[in-house]
Amino acid sequence: MAVGKEEAVVYHPVKGFKLGTGSAGIKKPGRKDLVVMEIPVGSSLASVFTLNQFCAAPVRVAKKHLATGALPRYLLTNTGNANAGTGEQGIIDAEACCQALASKMRCDAESILPFSTGVIGEPLPVAKITAGLESAIANLSEEGWEEAAHGIMTTDTRPKGASDQFEYQGKTVTVTGISKGSGMIMPNMATMLGYVATDAEVEPNLLQRLLSHTSDRSFNRITVDGDTSTNDACILVATGQSGVEITDLEPVLMERFTQALEHVMLSLAHAIVKDGEGATKFVEVRVEKAGSTEEALKVAYTIAHSPLVKTALFASDPNWGRILACVGRAGVHDLDVSDVQIWLDEVCIVDKGARATSYTEEQGQQVMNRENICIRVILNRGGFVDQVWTTDLSHDYVTINAEYRS
Amino acid sequence: MAVGKEEAVVYHPVKGFKLGTGSAGIKKPGRKDLVVMEIPVGSSLASVFTLNQFCAAPVRVAKKHLATGALPRYLLTNTGNANAGTGEQGIIDAEACCQALASKMRCDAESILPFSTGVIGEPLPVAKITAGLESAIANLSEEGWEEAAHGIMTTDTRPKGASDQFEYQGKTVTVTGISKGSGMIMPNMATMLGYVATDAEVEPNLLQRLLSHTSDRSFNRITVDGDTSTNDACILVATGQSGVEITDLEPVLMERFTQALEHVMLSLAHAIVKDGEGATKFVEVRVEKAGSTEEALKVAYTIAHSPLVKTALFASDPNWGRILACVGRAGVHDLDVSDVQIWLDEVCIVDKGARATSYTEEQGQQVMNRENICIRVILNRGGFVDQVWTTDLSHDYVTINAEYRS
């Protein structure tokens, strides 16, 4: 189950960036579970990783390889096994997979960044992955996006991709990305993998700044169940092969590029929420007139994480009392509840801290029947606004997570 | 559904404290939904209330009446309607109910403390409650505990009560209590009502100290879904009619009384968790060797609130990776993950930050099949220990909360 229909994605290839998907039979024989991406020489790369202190082995190895300062040449992703909670053996296993790919591609093992997603705590099946590499390498192609979007899926019910293009001085700039993730979605990159590439030329420091900025406004604003994974990572590669360079010196171009990048990142993040485990609704929780960004997010996440609000959303029940109770327990200092207003889309449900006098159950029900809903809380304490995106909590969520390993 | 069998409670009456249960037909005709408790002159009373900033009207009125400094003479509880999010009209309605009972009992309205639990945001049916008062008053009796335990239930599937007695110099001291609550259970008194009475003599300041201390170790350590209600309250009354006085000057007696009080409070709190909405397991999350109490609770609550851990518990799946991921994201500063050990009852599942080498899936499965489970995290950072109690997350939880209002 997922919210809305699956939208067809036109994947514009990114000049120089190749993807190959293969099969290692990690969980099921024949399943596409291995993806190799090739980064051309001369590219820049930026990355963000999980903040969970139990970083999985591949995250630790990727960070170590990045620390050499050399440009990574390959991204190696397996699904079905997260290689997390596997201690020192996990590190050895992740390095072994890098080494195997490096031997085949005739490069250093440090030029490979490994990514793993799936069950935590089981030993990585290194031999299977090594044996499967050939099938992925054989498919390496600039046209490989769609297959790779399938190849990185775990409990995802749909592939997730987004692509944007714009023209600049007769040249076309492309930004294309894929992502995976459906449970354990939380700020700080929860079980999410994202790979975005562009053929713009962007020097590494600027690229890192752009990735940090846009991931903070996209992947770090989504939550399904409040859990943060040990394996999350988002990689942004700029191959430069469009011949268009993005710099601070050309603000108009910079603006246009940032728009395209944000569009892709936000599409990928929203796609993850819509495919949230068991999701039947896509919900924006927006907090306005807050005293600070921190305060806005505190209230937004308290609502977005509340099982009582989420089950009410699943039941299409305009139970505004549960939303109001969340605002009251969000820990906002000295909150004057009589200043609080709450809206469901265009319907004001709470005014001056109590049910709005104009509100009728029918109005609330009409909004709740929708698949896309905005819960808007107006605190009237200042000028800050922020929002997060989330889903409801359904029977399917319980089923999926109670049965994931069986 | 609830964890374990319903245990028979022997309610020892508390000399001078009377309870009467009646019917006001608030949600369903004939349902017992109204409880009046009578406090004899000469008693002491202590109270703790919700920390949710959206206090419901009855909480605000109760606090106002307590502020007069006079001893309350009656506690008036209705179920079916929480009188929360009802603005100024809610205050007027709560006062009207107090006034109606005061007229009948020939006392001031300020001598009544009102309590409401049920749906948020609907106007309190004052006329129904007023009309139902007579049926509750007619039953006032020291023997009324068991009926009252039923009368304060909402989505509870069982009444909750506990009672303890001890002898002191030939006299018997009794502590008896009832509670309600099954969803929205969180620290800070989440949708919970608790009424405890003793025939010991305790001066008000000491009684408040004892209630604050024991509620912090019982009601404030339980969590079902992380939501905190707008209506929670716990009242402790000491009638003094046993003739035994508890004071700081008699530490042995004080210790014995505190034990009895803690036993009752903890039994009431655990009963709430076991009756948690849809609960199939009763889980203690215990964090040992933490750097501080705050740190221990941070880790304990992160685990206890994780939907992924809770669904794994529901599935009896020893998915220790999800527990480990919680420890990693709990926000413990400078955590050395290689120091962390995790146990499921007597089975060590994580050692040195990875799966314990001695661990087998069969061992974990054996523990997970139990109804009562202890998740024990050893941080090896200091000398602090604390624990919380919680439940799993089941299909029934979703069903109950998605359908509560229909």
TrEMBL record, chains A, B:
Site positions (Involved in the stabilization of negative charge on the oxyanion by the formation of the oxyanion hole): T117, G118
Keyword Transferase: yes
Superkingdom per UniProt: Bacteria
Classification via HAMAP family: ArgJ
Family to which the UniProt record says this protein belongs: Belongs to the ArgJ family.
A Pfam family annotated for this UniProt entry: ArgJ
UniProt keywords, alphabetically: Acyltransferase, Amino-acid biosynthesis, Arginine biosynthesis, Autocatalytic cleavage, Cytoplasm, Multifunctional enzyme, Transferase
Family annotation (InterPro entries): Arg_biosynth_ArgJ, ArgJ-like_dom_sf, ArgJ_beta_C
The enzyme's E.C. designation: 2.3.1.35, 2.3.1.1
GO annotation, cellular component aspect: cytoplasm
Main function: Catalyzes two activities which are involved in the cyclic version of arginine biosynthesis: the synthesis of N-acetylglutamate from glutamate and acetyl-CoA as the acetyl donor, and of ornithine by transacetylation between N(2)-acetylornithine and glutamate.
Positions of substrate binding: T154, K180, T191, E277, N401, S406
MF terms (GO), sorted A to Z: L-glutamate N-acetyltransferase activity; L-glutamate N-acetyltransferase activity, acting on acetyl-L-ornithine as donor
Single GO biological process annotation from the record: ornithine biosynthetic process
Residues of the site described as Cleavage: A190, T191
Subcellular location(s) of the protein: Cytoplasm
Main localisation: cytoplasm
Designated name of the protein: Arginine biosynthesis bifunctional protein ArgJ
NCBIfam families: ArgJ, PRK05388.1
Catalytic residues, chain numbering: T191 (nucleophile)
Catalytic activity as recorded in UniProt: N(2)-acetyl-L-ornithine + L-glutamate = N-acetyl-L-glutamate + L-ornithine; L-glutamate + acetyl-CoA = N-acetyl-L-glutamate + CoA + H(+)
Subunit organization: Heterotetramer of two alpha and two beta chains.
